[in-house]
Amino acid sequence: MNMAIVEEKRTVSEQAIDLEVNGEAHRLSVQPQWTLLHVLQEKLGLTGTKEFCGEGACGACTVIMDGRPVLSCMMLAIECSGKTIETVEGIAKANHPLIEAYIKHSCMQCGFCTPGFVVTAKALLDRNPNPTVDEIKEAMVGNLCRCGTYPAHIKAIQEAAAVLKVTAPTGGARP
Length: 175
Ligand code: FES
Ligand code: FES
Fold this sequence. Notes:
With 175 residues, the chain is α+β, with helices and mostly antiparallel strands. Helix content is 35%, strand content 15%. It folds into 2 domains: 15-87, Roll (Ubiquitin-like (UB roll)), CATH 3.10.20; 91-167, [2Fe-2S]-binding domain (DNA polymerase, domain 1, Orthogonal Bundle), CATH 1.10.150.120. The structure holds FE2/S2 (inorganic) cluster (2 copies). One FE2/S2 (inorganic) cluster binds at residues 108-113, 145-147, 149.
């Protein structure tokens, strides 16, 4: 006996969201289950933000949202409409001193965790232009590096802070 196989096709309705990413406004159509990380990588081609654990445990996917670091693998894109996002690409494009300091102090081996560290460090320096070692350690506690590059990050962040101090007339952080 022939059995009819009925293929059920489920359609997932997409919804429009507005995001400002690295200073550029975007209107995007997203599915409800898509993460912010997925949208940054697949819809905007911003592959600098990395997925390591995919479950909020490593910090590799960190971006800055409305001024604070968030884990983009844990955010639904649909809930981010109207937000302002900064990724490692924006930080590099702005020639933030962290980039030079990270290169100078060889903060990467495989480099997979590096964008998340840079983004978290940028958020730290934005709110605290002159962090102590303990404050740096506290801010970076959510970023994991399997290659063990931790000491180099502290030196690089301190150096970037010193450069910002010299280049920012008011002594504050650059945007
Ligand atoms: S990939 Fe998001 S926290 Fe690890
Ligand atoms: S440099 Fe390899 S995981 Fe950090």
